[in-house]
Give the backbone structure.
Amino acid sequence: MQDIADHIATTLKGLRQAQGWSLERAARETGVSKAMLGQIERGESSPTVATLWRIASGFRVSFSSLFGSPTRAMDGPLEERRVSIDDSVWGRDSAGMRAKLLFPYDPMLGFEMFEIELAEGAESASSPHAPGVVEHLVVVEGELVLAIDDDWHLLKAGEGLRFFADRPHLMRNEGPGTLRFHDVIHYLPGAASDGSG
């Protein structure tokens, strides 16, 4: 967990320096306060998943680039790739959400995949992601209450929904026990980079 927090701190600082942005400019672009960004860069704060999404959207990078090293683009035909997920978990945040990276962002395929858990009674409100971001949610366990703009959806285990994520959306666990779902995030061309420059 601390390794991921250190990586997020280093990555945020590197992204900001690469853009030539002050903390004030980064706050304007991401919607995250200057004080919070400074605390994250210094490793003094563990941001929520929602805050990390605002940072990724503001910098136009993939969400998974905040968690680990960029994935290299494949040079030739699609190849098999095994991933280790043991060290790619952002622990349960103050909103009761936990994100486990299953497949990091792949620039050739334009997607990344997470397993998300929401504790009983927890919800996560997301501000709009960058234009061209599409989410595919598939519920594995529990029931997901999902609001996209003002449209409400109830997804049970085995059900899924695809939607443009450049709109406000809210995910909530109203049932007993933990809610677990897979989140495949697809970036249409130009919607994100891998954060490597």
Notes: Residues 70-76 have pLDDT under 50 and may be disordered. Helices lie at 2-19, 23-30, 34-41, 49-59.
